[in-house]
Amino acid sequence: MYKSVDDEIVGRLRDIVGDSNVSVADEDRETYSHDETTGLKYLPEVVVKATDTAQVAKILTLANEEKIPVTPRGGGTGLSGGAVPLFGGILLSLEKMDRILEIDTDNLMVTVQPGLITGNLQREVERHGLFYPPDPASLDSCSIGGNIAEGAGGPRAVKYGVTKDYVCGLEAVLPSGEVIRMGGKIVKNATGYNLMDLLIGSEGTLAVITEITFRLLLLPKLKVDLLVPFNDLDSAAATVSEIIRNRVVPTTIEFMEKEAIKASERFLGKQVPFDNAEAHLLIEVDGNRKEDVESEYETVGEICLDNGAADVLVADSSTSQERLWEARRAITEALEHMSPVIVKEDVVVPRSQIPALLKGIRETSERYSISIVNFGHAGDGNVHVNILKRDMPDEEWSSALPKALKGVFETAISLGGMLSGEHGIGIVKRDYLPLALDDPQIELMRGIKKTFDPNNILNPGKIFPYSG
Ligand code: 2HG
Ligand code: ZN
């Protein structure tokens, strides 16, 4: 159905981006054949690195005319297979388009290219006293364009929301090669359909994002982290809802089961206090006035102790805070060391349903005798459900996994939730989409895809249930 990439096409790609930005070498095709999703690997026929919007437009025009699939890619840290070139074709890397184009301190906006690493964006604006809050755990290696494409979130979503809440302007290239610009340095916009929001979270299936304008906040002057151990899981889960019910909205409320902490300790070779506790909450509060921050963390600490916390440890220096967050961010990689075969889910439910969700997941784990380790952004209802194969025999795993997955998804949906809070659907969740969305919605989405991309060249095979 698609045309293969032959020498003639490679030659035309070289004419567009220059020889050094095109590779058909096995080692490069291998490097770009996967993202961070375990067990997914498809080789692209050619790897192309664009350095400006005009090049992206020319590449898409060529691919569209010749019917060659194009898979856009940023940092390659995705967890649903969004950047995996399922049908080969052209792997279009945006990694070289990584500049900050402007920090506009009059309008509190920053304009950037999509390949910029998220952590670098944060650090740069912080030098101006400004704040870009979204903080996916992979922030030192993920790219901002990928964050937009996948609808990334992060721990600070409890108070500050997710990537989409900061996008004010986008430039993107359509599969036809036409360049469109949406929004701008404006915080309000009621001008026609909101195509910008449609592109956010569209997983590179509708257009390739080439420039972004984000709104920024003022950097809070103070922050304090609390590490709160619990001797039973239910109390930890109940505390999450209790904090919100008490009208306190910290910056983060992260939840980590014992096994997640233990894995991280082993992986980093560093100890976490109270590592034998059944679960930990990692709670951050921030603000500008010392007394406000203190009163907020004291209230949170009291709620935790009233709900059965074993202790409340306060980290108020940047070194002690960094140590806690290092342990938290390492969990993903650490669990892979515990079980090389691992399925990572990120269901989301209303915050008040966190206790019911964790209970339902535990029942699923017991019913199918399958190992599940939970951690994540409990404060915004988003739990990373990690299903580990460990030493389960292959046959048992193949039979138990789909049942366990369905169990987890059905629990989340029955509680008013969704399949993914921040990792996207990609390849790994596409067949479960009908559990969450009804037929008319899926058909509307398919119609939108057709309107943007009639030849189905842009990141084909993602989001929609596989139909052969
Ligand atoms: C995180 O919050 C990431 O650490 C990865 O979203 C989650 O590994 C995971 O399941
Ligand atoms: Zn996460």
How does this structure look, described?
The protein is α+β, with helices and mostly antiparallel strands and 468 residues long. It folds into four domains: 89 residues, Uridine Diphospho-n-acetylenolpyruvylglucosamine Reductase, domain 2, CATH 3.30.43; 119 residues, 2-Layer Sandwich (Uridine Diphospho-n-acetylenolpyruvylglucosamine Reductase, domain 3); 112 residues, Alpha-Beta Plaits; 116 residues, Alpha-Beta Plaits, CATH 3.30.70.2740. 36% of the residues lie in helices and 20% in strands. The chain has 16 helices and 18 strands. A seven-stranded antiparallel beta sheet has the order 15-12-14-13-17-18-16, with helices on both faces. The chain has a five-stranded antiparallel beta sheet with strand order 5-6-10-8-9. The chain has a four-stranded mixed beta sheet with strand order 1-2-4-3. A hairpin with a 4-residue loop joins strand 5 and strand 6. Helix 1 packs antiparallel against helix 3, helix 8 packs antiparallel against helix 13 and helix 13 runs antiparallel to helix 14. The N and C termini lie close together (11 Å). The mean pLDDT is 97. Bound molecules: (2R)-2-hydroxypentanedioic acid (2HG) and zinc ion. Zinc ion (ZN) binds next to strand 17. The site of (2R)-2-hydroxypentanedioic acid has 8 residues, from helix 12 and strand 18.
